[in-house]
Write the structure tokens for this entry.
Amino acid sequence: MSGNNEGIIVILSSPSGAGKTTLVKEISKRNNFQISISHTTRKPRSNETEGKDYYFVNETEFKNLIDENKFLEYAKVFKNYYGSSKDIVFKKLNKAENVIFDIDWQGTEQIKSQKLNYKIVTIFILPPSRDELYNRLLNRERNDEKIAKERMTQFNEDVLHWKDYDFVVINDDLENCYKKIIKFIKSTDNKKDTNYQKLISLHVKSLIN
Ligand code: ADP
Ligand code: 5GP
């Protein structure tokens, strides 16, 4: 999709449970995008595979990687560390492969501030409603209310970062959302549509309690 001899960077962020991991996988499956597989100190979920979903490491291993300057960006999210490996990402970009990231707003800030010589497109995903978000979290966490509630506590703060992204999309129907994202990535006109921004702003207000 880049058209140049270098790949582009696409970043998806969202409050937990809005659907960015699902969307990143779909985008990678149906387009020429390689997923940046992060390192994390979080324990694997039952459906997650080492090296496919994450590289699962302990805190000492993660801190050694920080000391060795191995991360393009890293952050602490929900008491766990998460980071994107520099080597893996740059190898792909320099082979003209497009790289897609599923990272939080802190990581996005860090990547943007480095002023890298690659095109970067940032996209923020919103849930259709607070109730639907909670249901998605509960469902994913196999009805573990404690984890779902813990993730919801961060929502009001995380959602406010939508303003720092190039494009915002509501993940109601998955296929619709997917199509909007692809259209945006392919578009050369990245000017923000003020009417659309107002609509998103109202939607965000309805989500915050
Ligand atoms: P995130 O990566 O943003 O935390 P996930 O991609 O893990 O979120 O999605 C959270 C849960 O919601 C998953 O169980 C996923 O299958 C489900 N999900 C994602 N998008 C949709 C959608 N459009 N409609 C219904 N369920 C969805
Ligand atoms: P989860 O535990 O649900 O997989 O991810 C929790 C949060 O950490 C999500 O917002 C996800 O985008 C973010 N995350 C995953 N990998 C990384 C990473 O490498 N860096 C940063 N900054 N955030 C990440």
The two ends are 39 Å apart (CA to CA). Residues 16, 38, 42, 73-75, 77, 82-84, 102-104, 106-107 surround guanosine-5'-monophosphate (ligand 2) (CB under 6 Å). Strands lie at 9-13, 33-35, 39-40, 55-56, 71-77, 80-85, 98-102, 120-126, 167-170. The mean pLDDT is 94.
